[in-house]
Amino acid sequence: MLPVLTDLIYADPLFTIDSHGRPSLRLASDYPQWDAEGRTLQIAVRPGVKFHDGTPVTAAAVADVLRAKKRVRGFEFVTSVETPRDGIVLIHLSRPDAFLLDSLAGTPIVRVSRPDVGTGPFKLLSREPALRAERNQEYYQGVPGIEQVRVTTYDTPRRAWTAMMTREVDMVTEVNRDSVEFLEGSTQFRTYPSIRPFYIPLVFNQRNPILRNVEVRRALAEAIDRDEIVHRAMRDHGRVAEDPVWPFHWAYTTASRRHDYDPANAAQRLEAAGFPVRSLKTPGGMPSRFQLRCLFWDKGPQYERIALLLQRQLAAIDVDLVLEAASEADVKKRAALGDFDTFLMQMASGKSFEFTYLFWHSKRPGAESPQDSGYTGVDAVLDRLRGSLSDADVRVAAADLRQRFYEDVPAAFISWIKATRAVDSSFDVGDASDPEILANLWRWSIAKPEQRASR
């Protein structure tokens, strides 16, 4: 979280991706334009913007930043960057790639020779022992209402919450779920809950002979009561997920079919697929159709609660789910190596399709891949979506992608995650309905006395 937060504070990108998956202008003065073949992207750089050291943010300076980017993910098909005239940057590609926009949105514009000199609302003063920054009086979007920002990291959400209660800090980026109800009744703080672009799936490894059978995967998806998990394990701090596609994206449409909770039908599927209930020879083992191991993230009690509910729900269709807690590093390592039957942890979706491609496209030689489950069911439509540049093509491809996730189930998608930020009531964050209050930190100001009293 700290690197992302640092970028938000001191270095703006050309544009960001808003909560609906559309570009939102920052250092760009106009929306990016593709040529007819989709091999060149034109970006107009906002005039009059300065780096924190007073030097102008020119098209040439932006081009230097983009040329220095490693040719991975959204930049992997970039062949050259040029500045044919003042204020214009042209990015040339070997093939159309819609994901370039996501990568540009995640690229802070800084001085290449002095990367701590940025373009954002606050100037970096130090990174250690804590990040400190002061407001940029010449910020192109207006002078920030806060004079200084100090970012402190804590080992656990509970420790951060304790620091807020003692007023060591004025904001916590994520409140411990057990503490949300307490804070909601306090006048000292205001809470800002929102669905974040992260979801929790139970991922199936199709190299396991049992999970290679699509009827088994469909049965497991039908046997899971997502509403119960959100209510009991997540204490309603979530939203049921149907697939990994961001549900607020402009191209999102309701799927024609989804895996509704139906344990009776799930049991029939397994019976028809050749998996009757068998007694185990091992003393004390439960009679079952088969046994699967579940590797789950041990971060806090929530994931253990989810895993235990999954174990109970799958036991109702006579599937023995054996739980194994592991650290985030261990889960990620084993997921990337394909060393699992199933695994359960938080995944990022982003607000467009780049992360969906990264997680669910099959592993390509030499390419980054966070999990290797042997799944290839959405490769073709993901490749088509990556090359789709018009709204019409994106909308059709997105609908096809959701249908493929239903038909050729790579995971049981459980829930989107609701996170709650907390801010001391002495601050006015502006539009409280905006889920990006942290990204708009420069708009914050000290609350007037009457605003504090009303809270």
Care to describe what's here?
The protein is an alpha+beta fold and 455 residues long. The chain has two domains: 2-152, D-Maltodextrin-Binding Protein, domain 2 (3-Layer(aba) Sandwich); 196-417, Roll (Dipeptide-binding Protein, domain 3). Helix content is 28%, strand content 22%. The protein is built from 14 helices and 19 strands. β13, α9 (300-315) and β14 (319-326) form a beta-alpha-beta unit. α6 runs antiparallel to α8 (263-272) and α7 (226-233) runs antiparallel to α9. The longest helix has 17 residues, at 391-407. The radius of gyration is 24 Å and the shape is globular. The model has no long low-confidence stretch (mean pLDDT 91).
SSE layout and pairings?
Blueprint: H1 2-10, E1 15-17, E2 23-25, E3 33-34, E4 40-44, H2 59-67, E5 78-85, E6 88-93, H3 100-105, E7 122-126, E8 131-135, E9 148-151, H4 157-165, E10 171-172, H5 180-184, E11 189-204, H6 214-222, H7 226-233, E12 238-240, H8 263-272, E13 290-297, H9 300-315, E14 319-326, H10 328-337, E15 342-344, E16 347-348, H11 354-360, H12 379-386, H13 391-407, E17 411-424, E18 427-428, E19 445-446, H14 449-453
Parallel strand pairs: 13-14, 13-15
Antiparallel strand pairs: 1-2, 3-4, 4-6, 5-6, 7-8, 8-9, 10-17, 11-15, 11-16, 11-17, 12-17, 18-19
Helix pairs in contact: 6-8, 7-9, 11-12, 12-13
